[in-house]
TrEMBL record:
It comes from the Eukaryota. This is Polyglutamylase complex subunit TTLL1. Keywords: ATP-binding, Cell projection, Cilium, Cytoplasm, Cytoskeleton, Ligase, Microtubule, Nucleotide-binding. The gene is LOC118264303. One of its GO terms (molecular function) is tubulin binding. GO terms for biological process: microtubule cytoskeleton organization.
Length: 439
């Protein structure tokens, strides 16, 4: 039987063979087994350091660090597998609701509309005057994704928006790709039409989800440091969507472009200026492999406190947490909340020069490859802390656990939201109120 390790995907039949007869025996205080699809030393060593043994997907495992394709197959109807109480896996079955570019946008738009329909104050709108003099209406609290349309389905809506704001630059991104592949910027509708004709893409009828694109307003006023654009990579661990339990790793980092930011039309195609992906920048002649174009979030905070002041810096970081929590709430009701699952998401955020954070995208399998020494230290810590959060106090996976880690187990994770304890807190307050009224 072929192992799932190191193979990117399986066909349904072989998965049925591999997983159909799988169950994990009770641990009884014996050794714990992990299995992974990645040949990454950081992943493998993080388990081995805890004394766990690596096994194949068709053997007894307690925790599977899977790729998204294999995880989806495990939960597919054809597979018919029921995970045991001592088995955990690192993705939710339909994580794509949050991590696919088009679905993220659809879910956030729907969430805002629902709040609006319920007259929820969170959905309050406000009028904003643009530098061009035009006045637009936008959400006061929930305006954290750039205006985005899905192509080809929203093409007419996009053209309407384009005509209203003809000076805007747009960024086109394929939904089925990553690492900057297939991304380009446009500032003219004619360029989009030309691309469509040449690639015979979005106006064709036989489309697959791989051919879906999102077109987003390009954030053309990013905050620059040393004249260069950067984005933030923040790790967010979710252990449950209903109730929502999410944690943010304190040690995120900035990823810088290697070339100075330049909005001139001639530089529109220069990806070393506009895309912050390490996978793009590492091919640039200015790439520095010592620091890998990365700067720790603590240093960014210090820099901002020094240049912009403590108050606005704190507000920026509060707004980042706000946008993460609301992006998760936007998908919480569509997620299949399997209690064997947890997921570590890589959030990509751009800060503009008004210190407003924008959510660019969410990744389900943030890279566990280290590009520098600091990166290696950070990622080891991330995985070590993550395991402490997802495992109950005895260290043995248990899907029945109430997923309430102790303060020490959190390590460098901080609680973003725990609806369970919020609910309990509210109940306690209500009880106390009732008691006070009785007295
Ligand atoms: N709306 C935007 N405004 C400004 N820059 C953007 C915008 N969208 C994307 N970018 C830039 O393009 C880069 C790649 O975009 P994005 O992360 O969405 O695509 P990706 O290829 O899927 O990347 P990943 O490998 O992280 O999945 C971002 O890191 C950012 O630097």
């Amino acid at each position: 039987m072929r192992s799932a390790r190191g193979t990117p995907s399986h066909n349904k039949k072989s998965l049925l063979n591999i997983y159909g007869r799988l169950s994990c025996s009770p641990t009884n205080g014996k050794h714990l087994n992990f299995c992974t699809d990645f040949e990454k030393s950081i992943v493998i060593n993080s388990f081995k350091r805890r004394g766990w043994k690596q096994v194949m997907p068709d053997e007894d495992w307690h925790l599977y660090w899977a790729n998204t394709v294999n995880c989806r197959s495990i939960f597919s109807l054809e597979c018919g597998l029921r995970l045991g109480e001592n088995q955990l896996i690192n993705h939710f079955p339909n994580h794509y609701e949050l991590v696919r570019k088009d679905l993220l946008v659809k879910n956030i738009k729907r969430y805002r509309k629902e709040l609006e329909k319920d007259s929820n104050p969170l959905a309050e709108k406000t009028e904003v005057k643009l530098p061009s003099g035009q006045v637009i209406t936008r959400y006061l609290y929930l305006d954290f994704i750039p205006v985005t349309f899905v192509l080809p389905s929203d093409y007419n809506m996009f053209v309407e928006e384009y005509r209203k704001f003809p000076q805007t630059t747009w960024i086109l991104k394929p939904c089925g790709k990553s690492q900057g592949a297939g991304i380009f910027l446009i500032n003219k509708l004619s360029k989009l039409k030309k691309w469509s004709r040449e690639s015979k893409k979005y106006l064709q009828h036989h489309l697959t989800s791989k051919d879906t694109y999102v077109i987003s307003r390009y954030i053309d006023n990013p905050l620059l440091i040393g004249g260069k654009k950067f984005d933030l990579r923040i790790y967010v661990l979710v252990t449950s969507f209903r109730p929502l339990k999410a944690y943010m790793f304190r040690n995120g980092f900035c990823r810088f472009c290697t070339m100075k930011y330049d909005t001139s039309v001639t530089e529109l195609d220069n990806m070393y200026v506009h895309l912050t992906n390490v996978s793009v920048q590492k091919h640039g002649s200015e790439y520095n492999s010592q620091h890998g174009g990365k700067l720790g979030i603590h240093n960014l905070k210090l820099y901002l406190e020094g240049t912009r002041g403590r108050e606005v810096t704190n507000r920026l970081f509060e707004n980042i947490q706000w946008l993460i929590v609301h992006s998760l709430k936007a998908v919480a009701h569509v997620m299949s909340n399997d209690r064997h699952c947890f997921e570590c998401y890589g959030y990509d955020i751009i800060i503009d020069d008004n210190l407003k954070p924008w959510l660019i995208e969410v990744n389900a399998s943030p890279s566990m490859t280290a590009t520098t020494v600091n990166d290696r230290i950070l990622k080891y810590k991330l995985l070590d802390n993550l395991l402490s959060v997802v495992l109950p106090p005895g260290g043995i996976p248990d899907a029945r656990w109430n997923k309430t880690p102790s303060a020490e187990a959190l390590g460098d994770f901080q609680i973003l939201i725990d609806e369970d304890s919020m609910y309990k807190g509210e109940m306690e307050l209500a009880q106390r109120d009732k008691g006070a009224r009785k007295n």
